[in-house]
Amino acid sequence: MYWLHQSALYLHIVVGVIALIMFWIPVVSKKGARNHKRFGRIFAIVMYTVGWSGVLMASFDLWRPLVTHPVAQSTTAEAQTAISAGIRASATFLLSLSILVLATTRHGWLVIRHKDDRRALRRPAHVALCLALLGAGLTLLVIGGSSGNILMLIFGALETWLAIGFLRYSFKAELAHPREWWVEHLGSLIGSGIGVYTAFFVFGAARLLQPLLESGSFAGLGVVFWVAPGAIGGIAIARLSRKYRRRFSAEPG
């Protein structure tokens, strides 16, 4: 199990770095053009790899935390319990981010492929993934509320909001305007970026910048890095969605 966990970790790191760069190519490329479609497909494959490798790592950490993260034999039972609790807390958040990446990537891909025909979004696999995102969000809200963890509260609210939005879009009787699928695709893309950039800051950059963030001048700034992708991304989704809904609603037919 340890080596399988480590293999998933290395894969997650490699594809995660690729995803950080790949995210911007569909964003800046001309919408609907060949490069946008080509790199969009590649981005989806990369994000699925990021998501599933994260699910695998988090599942192992939740199941056997001291197997995936061995400690010295001299470690006391009390210390082992505390270490296990810390690993499981991080794994819970990583699992929620992984589900966020998978759900937003799949939703955005299905929306753009099927546009006005939303039957594919109502199939059991996609509905189950959206419900998993909803469950992850509610779990983070409960944990964040009981522990006062701002990071979990923000992402619990974001994941819950996105999951409800995905399900509502999939099952509502009629689209509000002919190109509502475009707005939905945009929001899903930003949501996937939130997941991958938050994972980078929380599990990657935070460790690299730890000496700086623990210094007197920058102490406490770590939480800013952690919540920034979710806060900025959530605001961007809300504002851009409102902007384009108004624009498309004003267009004829």
Describe this entry's structure for a reader.
The relative contact order is 0.10. Helix 6 (124-147) packs antiparallel against helix 7 (150-171). The radius of gyration is 19 Å and the shape is globular. It has one domain (2-250). The longest helix has 38 residues, at 77-114. By secondary structure, the protein is mainly α. Helices cover 81% and strands 0% of the residues.
Features:
253 residues, mainly alpha, 10 helices, 81% helix, 0% strand, globular, transmembrane helix, transmembrane, membrane, DUF2306 domain-containing protein
Q: Measured on Cα atoms, how large is the radius of gyration?
A: 19 Å
Q: How much β-strand is present in the residues?
A: under 5%
Helix content: over 70%
Oligomer: single chain
The number of helical runs is 10
Instruction: Let me know the average pLDDT.
Output: 83
